[in-house]
Amino acid sequence: MFDQNELQFEMVQLLDENGNGDEQELASFSDEFLVTLYRWMRKARVIDERLLKMQRQGRIGTYAPFSGQEAAQIGSVMALRKDDWIFPSYREIAACLVHGLPLAQIFQYVRGRVIGKRMPDDLNIFPIQIIIGAQTLHATGCAWATKLKGETQVSVCYFGDGATSEGDFHEALNFAAVYRVPVIFFCQNNHYAISVPVHKQTASRTIAQKALAYGMKGVLVDGNDALAVYKTMKQAVEAARNGEGPMLIEALTYRLGPHTTADDPTKYRNAEEVEQWKRKKDPLHRLRVLLEKRGLWTEAQEEAWVAQVNEEVTAAYEEATANETGSLVDIFDYVYGKPSKLLQEQQQEVARRKQRKEVK
Amino acid sequence: MAEITMIQAINEAMRQEMERDERVIVLGEDVGTNGGVFRATDGLLEQFGDQRVFDTPLAESGIIGTSIGLAVNGFRPIAEIQFLGFVYQAMDQLAAQAARIRFRSAGRFTCPIVVRSPYGGGVRTPELHSDALEALFTHSPGLKVVMPSNAYDAKGLLIAAIRDEDPVLFLEPMKLYRAFRMEVPEEPYEIPLGKARIVKEGEDVTIISWGATVPLVAKLAAEMKAQGVDAEVIDLRCLQPLDIDTIMQSVEKTGRVMIVHEAVKTNGFGAEIAALISERALFSLSAPIVRVTGYDTPYPVPSVEDDWLPNAARIVEGVQTLMRY
Ligand SMILES: Cc1ncc(C[n+]2csc(CCOP(=O)(O)OP(=O)(O)O)c2C)c(N)n1
Predict the structure, then answer these.
(1) Does the CA dihedral B80-B81-B84-B90 come out positive or negative?
(2) Per DSSP, what are the bridge partners of residue B114?
(3) Is the model's pLDDT at A7 over the cut of 80?
């Protein structure tokens, strides 16, 4: 087993900060793939910026922006099959979008609508997790079920560097490795858990190396290099599908904005550090340079695409808010398959209040 | 009909449900080769193999958390927590995750798992093995809480719990596992969750109890009859959902209420029942409601546990107090 677990401190990277890389390696990606990948990343950035603005305008609730992490999220999801499972935390809006979650639904979610919590029936996306690390076990259990049934979906669990301090993370990796289930633990190490830097979170040199202790493979990848993420994920998914068991991937990345709309990152990060990541390491920038070099993308295309996405966002927002329904009465339906008598009494009370227009 | 113990009834329920439905699987610490520390899962590994019965790593949050993923993806896991005091290790996964999957997904996902765990005192266990923690979980909307008090109920309730679409915490009074035998039908049957059992009908006072204390209450009620106090004894069987109708009918008939439970008094489930009765039937009462419970301390050391637990003396005294009004 030990040979599987060679400590790899080296970071997988295909595309450097200036959009350069090993030509042969880069040649393996089709033009069409590169454009699709970039379009998704650009789109996600626009959506994230709009959501942030909308929160400031009071049109949506507390929001956890993901700008800076597009390559990690989109690069990884694009390596999945449509029927693979994903287990997102609150920061994986881009991953959910790419896996098929309609934008209008995302608006319903961030506006705190009851129905915003319901993933479409044909999408294997678990409810967005708020409790740090809890989803690592759900993903492991889900993958375990897949294996027991002899099916071939892979389960992918998203979480941050902070989550790797939680007990559930360790229990999940341990179960996953013992039962060799097709789950991929995808850590977006964005360097901070709210205000706490990763070196105060763990004394490990990398998070990827934690895989070693559990008997699974761990990989450190440049999380701002969408191509490296995609390639790493593709390998992990294939291995998992072939019954080779779980993998831990650490994608080294950075969130450019605040943790959520409720904190002020200038209190715990210096401007120079943020500038560095913004200017030099932006995941969109390096992919775009590559596209331009290949003659696949121009300034005009960029403008047109951003304008189109902006329209799409506006339309989705309107769709989501046009017929906003959902009442306090409804939430009682989602507690048990069949509500108890006491719960029914409470629901009836709310229904009476609704009729008297005391509640929505 | 065979006369069997509660632990045999529990074993039989699991075995029959595993035979009936291949989605039913069992996981937990020592549930496989060892058959469970109380032998509740004895023979299941031999019969169903290691793809249905799993000796898991020693991790309570892991057991319940992975059960959630298994359930969402098509299985019906029965997870064992070796002793209820260890459930604190898995508090989030049980109370916040399993209980809320339906709610958090607005009905898209359900979580049909059963978490079985022995609980209850009087058996001289080490620290944190005996605690009665049921009230914690009646505070977690989405969970059902079931507490059988005999072999017949245990089998029917467990089968109903396994077939239920929602997560069920199934608490087994370890003191009663082998305390007595009773006739239990061999074929599978369900006792609906949320239906209390009237153990003994009576006119003078209603005694409400569940789980480990029920046989003691029943025995004392029979003795009291000879001394002229006709007690009605209700075994709730389920705390969530609660059979409020059976409680209210009895309270309106007798006008006197005693609640007996092992858990500590403050914020015990007895407090909830007393509040419900005062909301609904205050003027049917001829006396204040009496609670006989564990004391508000951590579960004590073996040398004093019999005095700590609700015992015959305290229960009889409680009834006498009620009857003085
Ligand atoms: C169990 C738990 N503890 C604390 C919190 C509060 N909290 C929310 S996000 C967060 C930081 C998480 O950091 P990380 O895991 O690195 O993910 P990131 O936010 O960087 O994506 C904390 C402490 C929580 N939601 N859940």
Answers:
(1) negative
(2) B78, B168
(3) no
Q: Which residues of B are catalytic?
A: 129
- Whether the predicted pLDDT of B177 surpasses 70: yes
Chain A residues with CB-CB distance to B under 8 A?
85, 114-119, 121, 126-127, 131, 134, 136-146, 148-149, 155, 167-168, 171-172, 174-175, 178, 331, 333-337, 340-343
Residue A185, strand partner residues:
A157, A248
Q: How much is the mean pLDDT over chain A? A: 95
Would you say the CB of residue A130 lies under 6 angstroms from ligand 1? yes
pLDDT band at A8 (very low <50, low <70, confident <90, very high): low
List B17's β-bridge partners, or say none: none
CB atoms near residue B35 (< 10 Å): 18
| Whether B98 contacts B143, CB under 8 Å | yes
Q: ipTM value, please give it.
A: 0.95
pLDDT of residue A329: 95
| A268 CB-side CA count, 13 A | 16
Cross-chain residue pair A337–B166, CB shorter than 8 Å: yes
Compute the distance between CA of residue B316 and CA of residue B219 in angstroms, rounded to an integer.
11
- In chain A, residues with a C-beta closer than 8 Å to the C-beta of B68 are 137-138, 141
Q: Is the CB of A162 under 6 A from ligand 1?
A: yes
Residues of B in contact with A168 (CB under 8 A): 61-62, 65, 92-93
CA dist B216 and B213 (Å) reads 6
User: What is the DSSP track for B43-85?
Assistant: THHHHH-TTTEEE--S-HHHHHHHHHHHHHTT-EEEEE-SSGG
Choose the residue to mutate in A129, A168, A194 for probing ligand 1, maximizing ligand atoms within 8 Å of C-beta. Answer: A194
> What are the structure tokens assigned to A280, written together?
């030099």
Condensed to tens digits (0 to 9), the pLDDT of residues B4-63 reads 999 999 999 999 999 999 999 999 999 999 999 999 999 999 999 999 999 999 999 999
Q: What is the distance between the alpha carbons of residues A89 and B26, in angstroms, rounded to a whole number? A: 29
Residue A1 has pLDDT above 90, yes or no: no
Q: Secondary structure of chain A in the HEC alphabet?
A: CHHHHCCCCCCECCCCCCCCCCHHHHHCCCHHHHHHHHHHHHHHHHHHHHHHHHHHCCCCCCCCCCCCCHHHHHHHHCCCCCCCEEECECCCHHHHHHCCCCHHHHHHHHCCCHHHHCCCCCCCECCCECCCCHHHHHHHHHHHHHHHHCCCCCEEEEEECHHHHCHHHHHHHHHHHHHCCCEEEEEEECCEECCEEHHHHCCCCCCCCHHHHHCCEEEEEECCCHHHHHHHHHHHHHHHHCCCCCEEEEEECCCCCCCCCCCCHHHCCCHHHHHHHHHHCCHHHHHHHHHHHCCCCCHHHHHHHHHHHHHHHHHHHHHHHHCCCCCHHHHHHHCCCCCCHHHHHHHHHHHHHHHCCCCC
d(CA A11, CA A1): 22
Confidence bin at A38 (pLDDT 50/70/90): very high
Q: Residue B168: phi, psi to the nearest 5?
A: -125, 130
Q: What is the pLDDT of residue A194?
A: 97
Distance CA A154, CA A181 (A): 9
Distance from CA of B56 to the nearest CA of A (A): 8
Taking only the tens place, the pLDDT of each residue in B248-258 is 999 999 999 99
